[in-house]
Write a structure and sequence with these properties.
Number of helices: 13
Number of strands: 12
Radius of gyration: 60 Å
Low-confidence stretches: none
Structural class: alpha+beta
Helix content: 55-70%
Order of helices and strands: HHHHHHHEEEHHHEEEEEEHEEHHE
Strand content: 5-15%
Shape: rod-shaped
Oligomer: single chain
Mean pLDDT: 82
Largest sheet: 5 strands, antiparallel
Strand order of the largest sheet: 1-12-9-6-7
């Protein structure tokens, strides 16, 4: 059976909501039923007790008024107009009395009564109405014809006096009975109201407790796993991958989130292992770079910016000093990251095995031999060359800086900039790609020589600098600003010029991601092999 933890959060909430609606429905229904019962009780009490009490009170008043008017009618010194008035009052009082008794009997017939005497008294009064009317009408007809001395006898004709007293007594007793019933009905209604309120409050409190408990269970079923996931997230943010454990399992959304975190943790651990390996590879790649002592012995001033886009990169520079001068190679290998770094190792090892004191000045020969070694190492066949399926290799510039300060340059797809303080000259490299296997012979590789000039400064940058996207128009950085900074700051130290180039590049890049590795080498040749 599916546990509550495995139920989707939306369904859990729907269950709680349905449960809440059921409790609200039960509470409201109970209140309505009790209200209806109380209303019915009050209505029945009004019809069975209050109305009869009203009718009997009216009947008593009318009966007593009728007796009083009969007494006045029998007085012999009344005028005819007065007798007419009293007679009309007697007839009206009698009619009202009879009507109230009939209405009382009608209510009693409809609702009944538990008081035996009440029923007998009402039926007695109802049955005596014709006899009463006969007595009253007789007194009315003869009262005006008698003298004053005989009016009492006429009014008490036959058993009228006894009947009147019996009626008065019955009316009084009925009044007491109805008042007692009214008080009892009020007490019952009050008890029912109290019971209804208590029941409603009990159901309401129970509903609130149940809803509160349900809400607590619902909240706990979400908060507990969320706390676990949050704790894991905090541990991950602190880099504590080894101590992170997430033991929450469920088929709900939170379970899916927990599973995602577990997969992420496994991925991060695997990535950490990979990054650790790449970081170590970065140390190896940095060890491939030439020692700074070579630059200090060869150049009067120099600056190096080497920034792989990732931990390792495809840009590399290499230098080696010989008796006749120093060879400097600036290479941009295919790709970046790990693939590019592997190629840099091949380039460096090929250079180490290619150069010797006898050919160090031959920059074209260095490129030719390097191309052959890369093609051989990559097992590039003639079919690969024809179909151009292979493109692993590098763009590079090879420079030989002679001890007299002259510089020989051969380059493939790499620009070398020379600034003498008056202008900046750009020497474009040939459209050749080293390692592609398309260079037929060394003679295809061009060589230029820049004569020694104490004002010359050299700048070699990989295409990661010029190809970077940025600026307001989101275009390539290019070389315009690069050349402007070189010329405007020619008399500054190379470290200052390089930093200004770098600052301008970073500003131009803005929020755009880095596209490639960055490599910038600048130097001012020395003379006679002496350091500065």
């Amino acid at each position: 059976m599916k546990s509550f933890q495995d139920i989707k959060i939306g369904r859990r909430l729907a269950i709680i909501m349905c449960f809440a609606f059921i409790l609200i429905f039960v509470t409201e229904t109970t209140g309505l039923l009790n209200t209806r019962r109380l209303s019915n009780e009050i209505s029945l009490g009004y019809e069975a007790i209050t109305l009869p009490l009203k009718f009997i009170a009216n009947a008593r008043g009318e009966f007593n008024a009728m007796r009083s008017n009969l007494q006045n009618l029998a007085i012999d010194f009344n005028t005819g107009e007065e007798n007419q008035h009293f007679r009309a009052n007697v007839e009206r009082n009698l009619g009202n009395f009879e009507e109230n008794i009939r209405q009382y009997k009608s209510v009693l017939d409809t609702h009944g009564t538990n008081a035996q005497y009440e029923r007998e008294a009402v039926y007695y009064l109802y049955e005596i109405l014709p006899s009463l009317r006969e007595h009253v009408m007789y007194i009315i007809s003869y009262a005006e014809q008698t003298g004053f001395e005989a009016h009492s006898i006429r009014l008490m004709r036959g058993d009228f006096y006894d009947v009147a007293e019996d009626i008065s007594l019955e009316l009084l007793l009925l009044t007491d009975i109805l008042e007692a019933q009214s008080n009892d009905a009020n007490l019952r209604a009050s008890r029912q109201f109290t019971e209804s309120v208590i029941l409603f409050v009990v159901i309401l409190v129970m509903s609130m407790l149940i809803l509160t408990f349900s809400a607590f269970v619902f909240a706990r079923s979400i908060i507990r796993p969320l706390n676990k996931v949050t704790g894991v997230a905090l541990e991950l943010s602190n880099g504590n991958l080894d101590t992170v454990e997430l033991d929450y399992h469920s088929k709900s959304e939170l379970g899916i989130l927990a599973d995602s975190f577990r997969y992420m943790i496994h991925g991060l651990k695997a990535r950490e292992i990979m990054v650790s390996g790449i970081t170590y590879a970065s140390k190896i790649q940095k060890n491939l770079l030439p020692p700074r002592s070579i630059f200090e012995e060869t150049f009067e001033d120099y600056s190096i910016i080497w920034e792989p886009r990732d931990i390792v990169g495809g840009d590399i520079y290499w230098a080696k000093k010989y008796d006749s001068g120093t060879v400097l190679c600036v290479a941009d290998c295919t790709g970046h990251g790990t693939p590019g770094a592997l190629l840099t190792m091949l380039v460096v090892s090929s250079l180490e095995s290619t150069l010797e004191p006898g050919n160090c000045h031959d920059t074209a020969g260095i490129i030719w031999n390097l191309d052959q070694k890369i093609v051989s190492a990559m097992n590039v066949s003639d079919d690969d060359i024809v179909s151009m399926d292979i493109n692993d290799g590098c763009d590079l510039a090879v420079l030989f800086i002679a001890n007299d300060g002259s510089v020989t340059i051969s380059a493939g797809n790499t620009c070398v900039f020379v600034c003498d303080g008056a202008e900046v000259t750009r020497h474009k490299g040939q459209s050749i790609f080293v390692g592609e296997g398309k260079i037929a012979s060394k003679d295809e590789i061009k060589t230029i020589t820049i004569p020694a000039n104490p004002d010359n400064k050299f700048y070699i940058a990989s295409d990661g600098l010029s190809d970077q996207i940025g600026g307001e128009r989101n275009k390539r950085y290019g070389y315009k600003e690069f050349k402007s900074i070189i010329l405007e700051n020619h008399n500054e130290p190379q470290s200052v010029i390089s930093q200004k180039i770098w600052d301008a590049f970073i500003k131009y890049q803005g929020e755009e991601p880095r596209r490639d590795d960055i490599e910038l080498l600048t130097f001012k040749p020395g003379t006679g092999g002496n350091n500065h």
